[in-house]
Amino acid sequence: MKPGPLPPSLRTTAPHFRPLAPWPVLLVALTLACAALAGDNQREWNVRDFGAKGDGRTLDTRAIQEALDACGRAGGGTVRIPPGTYLTQPLRLHSNLTLLLEEGAVLQATREPRDFMKEPGDWLQARSSGDFLPLLSGNRLTNVTITGAGVIDGAGEVWWPAAEEARRKRPGYTLPRPRMIILSRCSNVRLSGVTLRNSPTFHFVPTDCEDVWIENVKVLAPDHAANTDGIDPSRSRRVVITNCVFDVGDDNIAIKSGSLVPDHPFACEDLTVVHCRFFHGHGLSIGSETVGGVRGLRVRGCVFEGTENGIRIKSHRGRGGIVQDLVYEDIRMNNVERAITFTAYYPRIPAEDEPRPLTPETPRYRNIVVRNLTATCYENAGVIVGLPEAPIENVHLQNLEITAERTGLELRHVRNAHLENVVIRPKRGNPLVVRDATGTGLP
C-alpha cells in the first residue's frame, strides 16, 4: 500500500526552508505511470516459451533477451519468469516493460567475470566500474517495472575476495566491479516486491532518472562484502523508497550527486524514504559525491538495527556542493555506531583545521531538521561538523534521546543551531561537545 498524503509534521515551519514538493503531485505522476503500464501489459511473454530452462545449469541469456526484445518490439507488455533458477549474462530492458519474477524464480548471474566486461581482458586490471556491464540495464527508457516475489542474484561471492584483498593492500581502495541494476535517464521506474542479493558492488543505481518508486524490496549481502550498497539514487529526482529492508556490506542507501545537471540547480531533488528497516550496513547516507547538489529529502518512520551509521551526510573539499532542506523524523535506532553523522570531512575528521578559500566544490549543508529520534549507540552519539570556511547552517534538533557507550554529540563549525528537548547520555564526557557553534539550547 502506498503512503497517504504527507502529514503536516513533515512540512517544516523552520525559517528559510524551501517547501518540499507536494506529495499528491508525486502520487499523481506515479499513478499515471502505473496506468500507462496497465494499458501496455495486456500482452505477455513467458521466457520458457523462448527456450529458457531455469535449471541453474543451462545458460538462459539468449532466451530471456529474446523475450525482452519481443516485448520491446511489440511496444510493451510483461515478460514473465516462472519458478526456476535462470543462469544469465547481462540483459537489456526496454520501455513499457514489466519484468515479472514469480515466487521461486531466481535470475542468477553467471560466475564468470569476463561475461560482464565490455571489452575482453583481465577484470582485475579494470580501471573503473564503467568497464563492466550490469546484470540488468536500460538507457533513456520510460515505464519500466521490475516486480514479483522472485530473486535477482549477482553472484557477488565470485568478486568479493579479490576486492577485500585489494582493500587490505591499499586501505580505502575500491576494486572495480559491475553493478547489479543500472537504469540511466529513465522515467517512471518501479521496483516492487523483489529481493536483490549478492551484487558484486551496488545493487540498484537509478542515474539521471525521474519518478522512481521502490517498494517492498529486500536488498541483501553479507556484512563483510565490500561496496555492496543497497540503493544509490544518483542525480535523480522524485524518488520514493518505502517499506524496504536493507542488510548489506556498505551504505544501505546512498544519495549521490557527483556532477552538475544542466537546467537543474540541484542534481538530486525531492527524495522520500519512509517505513524502511536497516540492518547491517553504513546507514542512510548523502554523499560522498555532492558536487551537483541535493535538495529536499524526507526520512520518516525508519528503524536502524546494528548499522555502522544511522543518518549521515558525508563529503569533503573538492567533492562537495550544496545539501539543503532535509527532514528526518520519527526514527528509532538500536545498537548503531553513531546516530547522527553530518560531516564536511571524509573519510576522517581532523582534530584541528584552518579555513580555506571557498570554491564551487566546497561542501555546504543547511536547513536540516531532526526530530523524534531515539537511539542507543555502541560508540558516540554523533557529530555535526562543518568546515571553518563553510559552517553547517540552520540545524534544528527536537525531541532527541541518545544513549552512547562512549562520548556525546559534537557540534563544530555550526551556525544557527536550535536544540529543544535534546537528551544525550554518554558514558564519559559532556553530553554536548560544542566548539565554534552558535544557536539556542547549546550549553
Task: Briefly characterize the structure.
The protein has helices spanning 23-40, 61-73, 160-169; strands at residues 44-46, 55-59, 77-81, 84-88, 91-92, 97-101, 105-109, 136-139, 142-148, 151-153, 181-184, 187-192, 195-197, 204-207, 210-215, 218-220, 237-242, 245-247, 253-255, 268-274, 277-278, 284-287, 294-300, 303-305, 309-314, 322-343, 364-385, 392-404, 409-426, 432-440. It is mostly beta strands.
Q: Supply the helix-strand structural class.
A: mainly beta
Task: Report low-confidence residues grouped into runs of 5 or more.
Answer: 1-20, 35-40
Please count the beta strands (DSSP E, at least 2 residues each). Answer: 30
The count of helical stretches stands at: 3
Indicate the overall shape: elongated
Instruction: Give the CA-CA distance, first to last residue.
Output: 44 Å
Description:
The protein is mainly beta. The chain has three helices and 30 strands. The chain has helices at 23-40, 61-73, 160-169; strands at residues 44-46, 55-59, 77-81, 84-88, 91-92, 97-101, 105-109, 136-139, 142-148, 151-153, 181-184, 187-192, 195-197, 204-207, 210-215, 218-220, 237-242, 245-247, 253-255, 268-274, 277-278, 284-287, 294-300, 303-305, 309-314, 322-343, 364-385, 392-404, 409-426, 432-440. It is elongated.
Keywords:
44% strand; elongated; 4-stranded parallel beta sheet; 26-stranded parallel beta sheet; disordered N terminus; mainly beta; single chain; 30 strands; 443 residues
